[in-house]
Amino acid sequence: MRDERVPLRLGVLVSGRGSNLQAILDMAAKNPGASVVVVVSDRPGAFALKRVEGLGIPGVVAERGIFRNTDDFEAAICEALEKYRVDLVVLAGFMRILSPGFVRRFPRRILNIHPALLPSFPGLHAQRQALEHGVKISGCTVHFVDETLDGGPIIAQAAVPVLSNDTEETLSARILREEHRLLPETILEFVKQSR
Ligand code: GRF
Fold this sequence. Notes:
Layout: E1 8-14, H1 19-30, E2 34-41, H2 47-52, E3 59-61, H3 70-83, E4 88-91, H4 100-105, E5 110-114, H5 126-133, E6 137-144, E7 154-161, H6 168-193
Parallel strand pairs: 1-2, 1-4, 2-3, 4-5
Antiparallel strand pairs: 5-6, 6-7
């Protein structure tokens, strides 16, 4: 049980533009139960880092290429998460696969958002995979990260229609709108459950 007056401390891992990070920041600004305490990017130029500038939230860069191996790279990420005493790790467009060793350090405490209705279309280019298969419904999934690729227990999903004239861009945009709602909602649910 946690003290309700103490916010759940979120560490968000990103690689790119960070629109999901923005949705989490907006949610946390309105909810005393959740607080983003650190953002870690594996890409130094990620726009996501710009989103926390001036907010008093540290943006840490851990670039795989500057480390000798994956262990050292992941150790740097863990160090940042531990330094800021993160309770819940959120992968929000983080484009790297975390090793089983990393995942075991945060059991049931890593969430990921994936732009498809898992277990369909795991991995990269999920929206393109959906279009190529001709599915009529797709969506997004928030799941716990385990040692498999996009295969951990599903927590929440949102569905969207796939239209006959959809391109990867139009479908991605429709799914993204749902991501921005589903991920913050699921984090808030996690906050409630952990009380
Ligand atoms: C999202 O579609 C997410 O589901 C996928 O990568 C994209 C990241 O977008 N894993 P953003 O960086 O949050 O804008």
